[in-house]
Amino acid sequence: MTGTVRGATAVVTGGHRGLGRAIVDELLARGAARVYATSRRGGTSDDARVVAVEADVTDERSVARLAEQAHDATIVVNNAGLLGGQSLLTGDLGEIRGVFETNLFGTLAVTRAFGPILAADGGGTIVNVASVLSWLPGSGAYGASKAALWSATNSLRDELRSQGVHMIGVYLGYTDTDMTAALDVPKNDPADVARQIVGAIESGADEVLADETTRRAREAVFSG
Predict the structure, then answer these.
(1) Residue among 36, 142, 171, 174 flagged as catalytic
(2) What number is the average pLDDT over the span 143-154?
(3) CA distance linking residue 65 with residue 88, whole number of Å
(4) DSSP helix/strand/coil, 35
(5) 169: containing domain
(6) What are 196-220's pLDDT values in tens digits?
(7) What are 21-47's pLDDT values in tens digits?
(8) How many domains does the chain have?
(9) What CATH number is given to the structural domain containing 68?
(10) How far is residue 203's CA from residue 196's CA, in Å, rounded to a whole number?
(11) Is position 142 annotated as part of the catalytic site?
(12) Which of 9, 91, 153, 169 is 20 to 30 A (C-alpha) from 145?
């Protein structure tokens, strides 16, 4: 199922910086007419095609307001994410829950809000940004939440397919954003990852494996 980007309206959660900002820029470069870019703190944009929206994916009322405002969207990118809860055994349980609230339940809340809108409008695309850590242990609550998101994305794809809504899962290693700024490791260019994501929207791919590390990890897991 291919998706049309040119002339489309999109929503990108966490769209004001890092990978989210790169996705906004790539959508516009490929002809999107309007992009709602969300942040918990709100924001502004010098581009008239970008609508800056204050939204918290962990707050159902905030998500409902976003869905009402962006009711014309045909593309939704669940990019908002949170680090924390490094140790599942000894870390603060509230912090661990907070990571899951953003990375899993926040993504689910946005999908549940926009799925019916896209279906009623004839279909569309929802993108969930996960991680190579979906398949690798040792990253505490972040990795566990992304593993849960991988599973949820696969299940949601099956549920949404009959409604004409295409679900894409995105998996990537270290990427050059604020989240990884303190890490002295090789990193993906966010612009390159964004190009792959928008390319998948256009081509109808089910997954984006954004780098060689991710492709090897997935192959290792599924080859037994």
Answers:
(1) 142
(2) 98
(3) 33
(4) strand
(5) 9-222
(6) 999 999 999 999 999 999 999 999 8
(7) 999 999 999 999 999 999 998 777 889
(8) 1
(9) 3.40.50.720
(10) 10
(11) yes
(12) 9
